[in-house]
Amino acid sequence: MELETVIGLEVHAQLKTKSKIFCGCSTEFGRPPNSNTCPVCLGMPGVLPVLNRRVVEFAIKLALATDCTVNRRNIFARKNYFYPDLPKGYQISQFDRPIAEHGALTIELEGAPSRRIGITRIHMEEDAGKLIHDEHEPQSYVDLNRTGVPLLEIVSEPDLRSPAEAAAYLRKLHAIVRYLDICDGNMQEGSFRCDANISLRPKGQEEFGTRTELKNMNSFRNVQKALEYEERRQRDLLLDGREVVQVTLLWDADKGVSQAMRSKEEAHDYRYFPDPDLVPVEIDESWLEEVRAGLPELPLARKTRFIEQLGLPDYDAEVLTSSRELADYFEQALAAYPAAKKLSNWIMTELMRVMKGDEGIDIAACPVSPPHLARLLTMVDEGMISGKIAKTVFEEMMSSGADPDTVVKEKNLVQVSDEGELLTIVREIIAANPEQVEQFKGGKSKVMGFFVGQLMQQTKGKANPQLANQLFSRELQGA
């Protein structure tokens, strides 16, 4: 029996507002436990929530960026459940009237056609607190700093058909929220986190199989690994004639396994009802157009521009636009060094080799500024240094943050392009290697590499390689 995988994702993006969604408490990460709290976010009797307008604006931005329909009238609801880190005993969220619905993202995997993945809904809600467990004592501590921090939940359609597609969708959504500057995307701090629903069904069957939900995944790699594990587990069960039990699972990244957490809740378990303390949100046309006018160039549009206007290959454009910061870095360097492909090659090889992480390149931490990288490549084009020396200079720039001219001067790395100086060494090398000279005359042109290598060794890599080849060619033909 051939089985088909069906995956849907629920992503929570923490918004970059200075204050919480329904009160004025700070959202700053890392403060002492329970210091970012007040009677409103602690759910004290008699308090009333007041909606943060910035949260609505950010939600509209994401809705427009993902081709969603913005509901001009949307309603907050109470989602009832009882956890120690939920002080009110309910979470203020949205249910049947979310702020946005029916959008999509396009994903691309190498060697496969692009696919449009539907977005069911985007809704606003408040975050819960955090439980801190004591490994040595049978007790837990509650930190309510995160309670009331604004979130957008983005729920996909069950359109994803592999763990690799799920990871591609997450990366695309991650890039969009960072381009919009509404979420910092820090997965380690929980600012961008994902729950995944996965089920398997016989290929060709329309009815979905029994799904499980995976939680506690804090990187794109972990999401893909967790889904691959659960995909194998469910396939083994079904092919063995056993049933999949609907359950919520926690992913243990260290052990590479999932563990049952609790039975999976359904919407009716939460007993949703409209929050009586909050009036419906009304979004008029002028507000919608104001937000639309302020949208930045998004990843897909920027990628298309890089291809059509700069002549970059599809792959280069995809990599460079994977984050707003990386694309900005490229364009700032391009302003001083307009050879787009050469610049792209350097960024994707030398720069990303030392800066790349699981969530992409942290360009903000790069000690080599765009103008300095542009200057380095200009020095190569002008013959001041060779391409090989440029890599040495770049490593020193990454280490010290110095500009390329300073590094080249201090390390005495200026390329030797004086014909007279090099010609003397060339003739000495030819005179010292008569056997290789005869090989060259006998048609073994590859021996030229030996001669140039000898020259580079004697000049400590500073000889102009193009000039070196010309001199050896001329001298050997006349020898």
What topology does this entry show?
Layout: E1 3-14, H1 53-65, E2 69-70, E3 73-74, E4 76-80, E5 90-94, E6 100-107, E7 115-126, E8 130-133, E9 140-143, E10 150-156, H2 163-179, E11 192-202, E12 212-217, H3 220-239, E13 247-252, E14 257-263, E15 273-274, E16 281-282, H4 285-293, H5 299-310, H6 314-320, H7 324-334, H8 340-355, H9 370-381, H10 387-400, H11 404-410, H12 419-432, H13 434-441, H14 448-458, H15 465-478
Helix pairs in contact: 2-3, 5-6, 7-9, 9-10, 12-14, 12-15, 14-15
Explain what this protein looks like in three dimensions:
This protein has 479 residues and is an alpha+beta fold. It has three domains: 12-200 and 271-288, no CATH class; 296-400, no CATH class; 419-478, Arc Repressor Mutant, subunit A (Orthogonal Bundle), CATH 1.10.10.410. It is 39% helix and 20% strand. The protein is built from 15 helices and 16 strands. The protein has helices at residues 53-65, 163-179, 220-239, 285-293, 299-310, 314-320, 324-334, 340-355, 370-381, 387-400, 404-410, 419-432, 434-441, 448-458, 465-478, and strands at residues 3-14, 69-70, 73-74, 76-80, 90-94, 100-107, 115-126, 130-133, 140-143, 150-156, 192-202, 212-217, 247-252, 257-263, 273-274, 281-282. A nine-stranded mixed beta sheet has the order 2-6-7-10-1-11-12-13-14. The chain has a three-stranded antiparallel beta sheet with strand order 5-4-15, with no helix packed on it. A two-stranded antiparallel ribbon has the order 3-16. 36% of the residues are buried. The mean pLDDT is 91.
